[in-house]
Amino acid sequence: MEKITYVIGHVNPDTDSIASAIGYAWLLRERDGMNAVAARAGSMNQQTSWVLDRLNLDAPCLLTDVSPRFESVARRMDTTSPDKPLRDAWDIASRTGGVAAIVNEDGTPYGLITGLTLFSFLAELVGPNPEREKMRIAELLELPCLEAADTGVPQFKAGSRIRDAVNRILRQERNYFIVVDEEGQYVGLSRQRDILNPPRLQIVLVDHNEPEQAVGALEEAELLEIIDHHRLGNPFTRAPIRFTTEVVGSTSTIIAERILEAGLSAPAEIAGVLLAGIFSDTLFFTSPTTTERDKKAAERLGRWAFSGHSPLKGETSESYGDTVLKAGAGLSTRDPDEIVTTDTKTYVSGGINFGIAQAEVTNLMQVDKHLDELKKALERLRKNRGLDFAILMVTDVVQGSSRLIIINPPPMFDDLPYPGSSDGTRFAKGVVSRKKQLLPTILSLLES
Prior knowledge:
The protein is of the alpha/beta class. The chain has 14 helices and 17 strands. Helix 13 (366-384) links the parallel strand 14 (352-361) and strand 15. The longest helix has 19 residues, at 366-384.
């Protein structure tokens, strides 16, 4: 089978991250014939869930760790049962390269018979046992498999990470190991050499290029490509890859341009989700990150998204953009811990680790009602992730400004160009972009 290529965004994925993964996986399948699958590295936020539901699209598969699993090196070799004669195991071993799995009637493994275990059993049986010394091989092979099976073979669950078991495997003087599922049912056998050199998952990263924001164990995967619109912080690669980073407001814009370059037109659902990605990341073109390329891409996507039998038929860019933004706005219906973790990115500068979370509202007055709970949740986030300080950026998507809640601010934050309030928050007038407005200001203070 052709290997799967997973297209995946950052942890705590936003709408642009999910949309660009779905859109680019579709393009790779349509244009290149690749077995591409959209994936996500974490839970989706409220806005993204609404968009996918509106478009009748399934959520990308959850992939939190790309470390190779035992299922990738398991082969479902033929089996026999413990009460069957040894000749059955002998016959299987002759076809599998010298190994036969012995499996109970309930599907659980009993043990293994290999050429070595069979030889040792027969030698021991014939040698010291006068009564059986003259037994013929044909008669010996009628004995039940349970008498010759090695029942001490280590078993590993199919979904377990190989790297967690490597030391145990290296201490074993065996060539084969048993793989089982979560219920302990036989899945197959794995050879030691395959376990020590497992196939790597093929990965395309979208909407980020920093290892700290990537799916777990990225270094154990085969990274094929990165498509992004953020600052550089790219991971180490073993070979040259295709790396695209563009000064646009949304990764979905880049995907839409790739579709155009390929001479293709996206289905209404794909166009609709990419359009939502652009609207979300540019705050419907009000963010300073917005470019003319975003607007042109949105115009083309709109022609595909709002026509025919589309789920969005009857919508306009204005009505759809407005509902996309409002779908992700609000604090009252969400748990404070969810608010500070759903859209959080971590950074390192000058040896200082910090995180910036962002939440959207339609009125900044909502912050007052939930301020104490948000501060406590932000402090928990800071401690759990080992951060020196943490910021929650609450952005008003209607008025285009933000309030900053800062936990454990460093001394240089006295020079922040945002006036403070008696409740400890700061008002950042006209600041809506974490990437282009807030982060550069923070980095400038830390680096100075």
